[in-house]
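Subject: DUF3606 domain-containing protein structure
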Amino acid sequence: MATSKTKPAKSARGRAQDRAKVAAGQRHEVSYESGKTGASAAEVKEAVKSAGNSRKKVEEKLGK
């Protein structure tokens, strides 16, 4: 009998925590933050590197 592997449902809390972070390795997240703040992609990546991946801290670092 084969078992199927399914991902557990992500809770609302998990989604909210995910939105509160910027993944510098994800092009779409860097692009979104870049468009939102007016900073370049390189500036967003540098802000994540120096301030951490908290969206709030990254936006503060970028002057948003």
